[in-house]
Write a structure and sequence with these properties.
Radius of gyration: 63 Å
Strand content: under 5%
Helix content: over 70%
Number of domains: 1
Largest sheet: none
């Protein structure tokens, strides 16, 4: 081997040095680097898993949010529809009550007018009879006797009353 330029003690020394260096590098450099790389890989995979979980959670939260919004819209629509129905029924009640009050007032006014008309008619009849009686007394005082006047007046009053009652 010496022809090749290889010296055995030097080769053994280099082999020992290389082995020591290999052991030292493996123990102090290679294993910690592998360990750090493994830890880093685990952290990255955990981060990816966590990110996937968070994305799934976010999707669930969005779905819940959309469901809540839909429920809220439905409830709001129901409330608005109910309010419209209530307003319509209240409107109908108010109109019915107004019509009833209007009819009552109309009936009362008609009744009052009829009563007043009857009173005025009766009062007018009485005044007409009195005026007629007075006129008859004055006109007939010169022509007929008081007894005849009295009979005629009574006869005419009865006729007036009969015609008035009809």
């Amino acid at each position: 081997m010496e022809k090749l330029g290889i010296q055995l003690p030097m080769l053994l020394t280099q082999i020992v040095n290389f082995t020591i260096m290999l052991l030292l590098l493996t123990k102090f450099l290679y294993k910690p680097i592998l360990k750090a790389l493994k830890e880093r890989k685990e952290k990255i995979s955990q981060g990816l898993i966590y990110a996937e979980k968070m994305q799934a959670e976010e999707e669930k939260m969005l779905k819940k949010h959309e469901e809540i919004l839909q429920k809220t819209h439905l409830e709001a629509k129901k409330i608005i529809d109910q309010a419209k129905k209530d307003a319509t029924s209240v409107k109908s009640e108010i109109l019915a009550q107004g019509k009833l009050e209007n009819e009552e007032m109309k009936a009362k006014m008609e009744n009052d007018l009829n009563n007043k008309l009857n009173e005025m008619s009766e009062e007018m009849s009485q005044k007409t009879v009195k005026v007629a009686a007075e006129m008859t007394k004055k006109l007939l005082a010169d022509i007929i006797t008081p007894a005849q006047q009295h009979q005629m007046i009574e006869k005419n009053l009865k006729n007036l009353e009969n015609s008035h009652e009809k």
